[in-house]
Amino acid sequence: MDFELTEQQRLFRQTVRDFARKEVAPHASEIDEHERFPAELVRKIADLGLFGLSIPPAYGGHGGTLLEATIAMEELSWACPSTALAWGVCISLYGSSLLKGGDEEQKKRFLTPVASGQHLGAFALSEASCGSDAAALRCHARRDGEGYVLNGAKYWISNGAEADYVVVYTTVDPALRTKGITAFVVEKGARGFSVGKLERKMGIRGTSTAELIFDDCRVPAANRLGPDGAGFRLAMNVLDASRIGIGAQALGIAQAAYDAALGYAKQRQAFGQPLAGFQAIQWMLADMATDLDAARLLLYRVATMVDKGVPFIKEACMAKLFATEMAERVCSKAMQVHGGVGYVKGSVVERCYRDQRVTSIYEGTSEIQRLTMARQLLAEGG
Ligand code: COS
After folding, report:
1. How much is the pTM?
2. Ligand 1 and 232: CB distance under 6 A
């Protein structure tokens, strides 16, 4: 077993880290405060070439491994998790829906503009009445001549307000549950497609979380990903790996909170010595560092498994579950180290504490991770 990154991977991490800390981090507080989509930072991420990560050169990308994407997500999230998400949705949820479900023509048409970062993508699965129970979705696709007519609404869609292309999961017949789910790429500006309510959130406030409305929206059959009924398996396949990215987001946020706590503990004086001189604080720091290391190992291991092409669903659930619940523990301790100084608006740990909270909810709650893992464990137990 080799636990070291290669020279090339270390160089990649350093490049993204330098960029994230210099160009992105200084804006994180203002982006959060004003709930502002960071369009200028998204452009800079595009200039760095990160939108082409995981996307093959044939579709405008640079290839690369999931381990690199995981490292990039961790580093960008250290700086600003909203900016990281705006990018991550494009390469993981949107990009892999196309890579796994699209034909050659669709990949060329719909991946290439997103791989350059000139256009953004989104992934629309959840609805007002279904999140975890994905098969219960109601957004309907009716066959009509050469195309389909979509009616219904999607909720909590990250990048929903800015996306130029959205992979929309619909049903051709709700009675068929998983067997009726069918995915389409819908383009911004399509008649009958509009952005509805934007949610105001506790964290990740720089990325839009939108309602998408389909009102007799006509979509050509050429935009359908796979045959009718192939959408559920596609969505599950996409989420299996994209969840690693959310674990990496949690890791980056928690690392930022830890770094702030460590710095503060060394600098803040109490009872005639730095906070770091007290064993109570030392133990918190030691527990936080252990948690971070364990999460990183789980995430890097599963990303490497995906890159090697070996089965990884159970390990992805473990990594997402552990990393996102770890982030809550670490951010809470980081705030405890800061005391009142951490609780006020404008403190890094206050933002981290809010930003991390959704990571154990979106792209599969902790409960869904446990359920999926348990199914695998029981099946293995034969
Ligand atoms: N990969 C490939 N296929 C999968 C799969 C996976 N990870 N998980 C399930 N499937 C297949 C099953 O094999 C089954 O196929 P067959 O009908 O051919 O046997 C089919 O899909 C239906 O699976 P299942 O019966 O397990 O469906 P359920 O309705 O019980 O749902 C869960 C399964 C709960 C695991 C699924 O709905 C889920 O993951 N929900 C969470 C969704 C989510 O993450 N939402 C957040 C949205 S993004 S912010």
Report:
1. 0.97
2. yes
Tell me the Ramachandran region of residue 85: left when phi exceeds 0, alpha when psi lies from -120 to 50, beta otherwise.
Answer: alpha
Mutate to test the pocket of ligand 1, among 178, 358, 371 (most ligand atoms within 8 A of CB): 178
181 in helix, strand or coil? Answer: strand
> Residue 195 in contact with residue 232, Cβ under 8 Å?
no
Ligand 1 in reach of 376 Cβ (< 6 A): no
Closest by CA to 99, choosing from 73, 69, 72, is 69
Give the chain's domains with CATH numbers. Answer: 7-120 (1.10.540.10), 122-228 (2.40.110.10), 233-381 (1.20.140.10)
Has 30 been annotated as catalytic? no
Residue 364 beta carbon below 6 angstroms from any ligand 1 atom: yes
* pLDDT tens for the chain, residues 1 to 382: 889 999 999 999 999 999 999 999 999 999 999 999 999 999 999 999 999 999 999 999 999 999 999 999 999 999 999 999 999 999 999 999 999 999 999 999 999 999 999 999 999 999 999 999 999 999 999 999 999 999 999 999 999 999 999 999 999 999 999 999 999 999 999 999 999 999 999 999 999 999 999 999 999 999 999 999 999 999 999 999 999 999 999 999 999 999 999 999 999 999 999 999 999 999 999 999 999 999 999 999 999 999 999 999 999 999 999 999 999 999 999 999 999 999 999 999 999 999 999 999 999 999 999 999 999 999 997 5
Ligand 1 centroid to residue 8 C-alpha, Å:
36
How far does residue 374's CA lie from ligand 1's centre (Å)? Answer: 13
Burial class (CB in 10 A: 0-12, 13-18, 19+), 38: buried
Strand partners, 213: 153, 194
CA-nearest residue for atom 44, ligand 1, is: 364
362 lines ligand 1 (CB under 6 A): yes
| CA distance linking residue 294 with residue 326, whole number of Å | 9
- Please identify which residue in the block is written with the tokens 């619940």: 325
d(CA 232, ligand 1 centre) in Å? 7
